[in-house]
Design a protein that fits this description.
The protein is of the alpha+beta class. It has nine helices and four strands, in the order H-H-H-H-H-E-E-H-H-E-E-H-H. It has a four-stranded antiparallel beta sheet with strand order 1-2-3-4. A hairpin with a 2-residue loop joins strand 3 and strand 4. The longest helix is centred in the N-terminal third of the chain and has 14 residues.
Length: 173
């Protein structure tokens, strides 16, 4: 029994590799590949939304804003702080650093309710995005489960919020 417990608690990097593969696929905007590492849900491919908006826009400033938001959303850094595995369950403690675009948008419009209605407004907003200070660091426990000898992540609302730069929490839920 002692050997079985020791074996199940042994350090296995497969769970960390699964997380790294997921986050690398996600930040490279390959949502289909990222979803292969998830157990409980599939993340909608937000790239389709960005592509659709960009293809329908005739305003260069708007297109630049959408591209900047997309680039910021997929700019997520992480550090694995710890890993605990017991049999077919694992928990990774991850420090994420990401842009909170939702907070930036809310504060930008809250702080300037008389935002101008001319073409200049897009340039002002774009410059505010490029100089944003809303990059946050957050520590989150990521749960993984092993099925058929493969590790899969269990997506939480907190992880979705990080992946969507705060948009999930502030505009969807």
């Amino acid at each position: 029994l002692g050997f079985a417990i020791l074996f199940s608690l042994s350090i296995s990097k497969d769970n960390e590799i699964t997380f790294q593969n997921f986050i690398n696929s996600y930040t490279s905007k390959d949502i289909e590949q990222a979803n292969k590492y998830l157990l409980n849900i599939s993340i909608p491919n937000i790239n389709h939304v960005f592509d659709n908006v960009l293809s329908q826009s005739d305003n260069e400033s708007k297109m630049e804003i959408i591209s900047e938001i997309q680039n910021m959303m997929f700019n997520i850094d992480y550090e694995i702080l710890s890993s605990k595995t017991f049999f077919n369950s694992s928990t990774l403690k991850i420090r994420f650093t990401y842009y909170d675009i939702a907070k930036h948008i809310i504060n930008f419009f809250k702080n300037d309710p008389s935002f101008p209605d001319d073409e200049n407004k897009y340039e002002i907003f774009l410059e505010s995005l490029k100089s944003t200070k809303y990059k946050f660091s957050s520590i989150l426990d990521i749960q993984l489960s092993k099925k058929n000898n493969q590790w899969y992540m269990i997506v939480s609302d907190k992880l979705l919020n990080i992946l969507t730069s705060g948009i999930y929490k502030n505009f969807i839920t």
